[in-house]
Amino acid sequence: MTNLTRRVAVTLVAICISVTMLAGCSLHKKSERITPNPTPSEIETVVKPAKQDSGKKPTTEPLERPMGTRGTFSSSFLTLQKLYNLAAVPTYDGYNQSTHPKILYFPKGWNGYEYWMSITPYPFGNDDYENPCIVASNDGKTWVTPAGLKNPISGIPSDVKQGAHYSDSHLVMTGDVMEMWYRYNKGNPKTKRPDSSMDYYYRTISSNGVDWSVPQLMQQSKAGILSLAVNHENNQYQLWYTTAQKKLMHAVSTDGTAWTDIKQCSIELPQGYLPWHQDVIHYQGTYYLLQTGIMQKNYSFALFLSKSTDGINFTKGVPFYPSNNPVILEKTWLYRSTVYGDGNSLRMMVSYRLPQKKWYMTGASVTVQQWNDACDKQKPLILQDPKLPVKKKTEDTAPPKGITKLSEEKPIQKSNI
């Protein structure tokens, strides 16, 4: 290469480099800028409740493993959660108010979760939304809608505009199959209110908690089937329910449809209260009854502990409160709750209606010995709120004042809840 040729080549290379730099080019492949996923704190978590007629699901937070969808909760809920230790349970309507829980606990897990719970949304006492749903958890505190599951699994009654509604869901295992039982109260086209002349109970089943069968009619009665509690052991169903006359009944069945040996249970509650809703488990050889009582005179509800050796003859119910917070003791309805065994503990999800007709739930736990002692000694069991100062124990066995206090609000629901 001559000196002239060499000088021309160098000049051309220099020009090329200058043009490349001015154009922002690179001799290497252009790299893409990766935007990191937002952290939970960067995502808006406070939303307004959906309108009652919208039918839209709320915006959800990022999915976690195992896959599931959390709800989003309003600032008012978060405030109440701190005051009353509320469980954050998502509902399809966006209000995240629910009642009538039933928990099945699997220490080794079942289809990805240790806790499965049925609930019925009940925002401000509106039974249009009282359609059975499923949520799950791995710690009993953080509840999600399992991936692939569409709530409500019962669907919505076709005659809901005529006053119909579903309610009173309950979970039970038969082998490796999960069953949900729930009640249907048809509507009256003339009054646009529930037709209470007949109660229907349906059952739907699932092998994975997500895919559910077509509902099957299991039982119907003009005498009332309220808050059916179902156990299954030794190839037999045991069924407890309350009649329209507020009597707690017991029956057995081999197939779930033919109920036999129907008997009225013996369960005495404090003066003025009658059986209403209940959950029953058979644990460590004893039947434990978590009984909701109704005071018809004042239309209010309280919660009682009882036990039995045969599932029919129960001890007199003793008052139970998940907290000694004055609001819980005196201004809150304690409603249908659920109990399950875990070692030497009996754990509960307690449902209650707070002031302003807000329906939420809280976790609670007592030892088996505490439950037994309360029943044997007939002493109310009131759990200490950790946020309140500890009061000196007394020997007073009378129920708290709140158990007979007049309800401050008249119910707005269209039917029995």
Task: Give a short synopsis of this structure.
By secondary structure, this protein is mostly beta strands.
List the helices and strands and how they pair.
Layout: H1 3-22, E1 68-69, H2 75-84, E2 98-110, E3 113-121, E4 133-137, E5 145-146, E6 165-174, E7 177-185, E8 187-188, E9 193-194, E10 199-206, E11 216-221, E12 226-233, E13 236-242, E14 248-253, E15 260-264, E16 274-283, E17 286-295, E18 300-308, E19 318-321, H3 326-330, E20 333-342, E21 345-354, E22 358-367, H4 368-377, E23 381-382
Parallel strand pairs: 19-23
Antiparallel strand pairs: 1-5, 2-3, 3-4, 6-7, 7-10, 8-9, 10-11, 12-13, 13-14, 14-15, 16-17, 17-18, 18-19, 20-21, 21-22
In words, what does this structure look like?
By secondary structure, the protein is mostly beta strands. Helices cover 11% and strands 38% of the residues. The protein is built from four helices and 23 strands. It has helices spanning 3-22, 75-84, 326-330, 368-377; strands at 68-69, 98-110, 113-121, 133-137, 145-146, 165-174, 177-185, 187-188, 193-194, 199-206, 216-221, 226-233, 236-242, 248-253, 260-264, 274-283, 286-295, 300-308, 318-321, 333-342, 345-354, 358-367, 381-382. A five-stranded mixed β-sheet has the order 16-17-18-19-23. Strands 6-7-10-11 form a four-stranded antiparallel β-sheet, with no helix packed on it. It is globular. The N and C termini lie far apart (99 Å).
